[in-house]
Design brief:
Length: 148
């Protein structure tokens, strides 16, 4: 089942994040250990708004909606536009600058939000998402972490 919402193109990243977490149990376990929280994303594109969550507290899974399937609420919710989320996953945007300028709104534990960056907001997920759609992959294949 795809997590992508066709009206929000950047949402393809959630499929790639899910695939990455579920394909490597060691990475999944490490992400849970390092993340330690449930992160929610609310992304808006024009009149369409949708939400996803990434459970880096218990299961290491990605799903639709703000809460997990068993009703656990996120410790951190990030709200931003589709275009700005796309910039983040491509490594072309800076989360701290977006936050300071009001383009990225964070509800909940702001310090927890910084812990999910290495697992969520780097270009490998964007590369994988584009590969899944049959588009060309980055030539260098290197990881770029937002804010570094």
């Amino acid at each position: 089942m795809s997590l992508k919402n066709d009206a929000i193109p950047s949402s393809a990243a959630f499929d790639a994040i899910h695939q990455s977490l579920s394909s490597d149990p060691a990475e999944q376990k490490d992400a849970i250990k390092q993340g330690g929280a449930i992160f929610a994303f609310t992304i808006k594109n024009g009149s369409t708004t949708d939400s996803w969550h990434i459970d880096l507290k218990n299961k290491g899974v990605v799903g639709k909606g703000l809460s997990t399937e068993d009703g656990q609420k996120p410790q951190v919710t990030l709200q931003l536009s589709d275009a700005d989320f796309q910039k983040l996953i491509e490594g072309k945007g800076n989360a701290q600058q977006m936050f300071m300028s009001g383009k990225l709104k964070v509800k909940g534990d702001v310090m927890k939000a910084t812990k999910m960056e290495p697992y969520v907001l780097h270009s490998d997920f964007d590369t994988q998402a584009r590969a899944n759609e049959g588009e060309a992959m980055n030539a260098n294949g290197s990881k770029h972490y937002v804010g570094t």
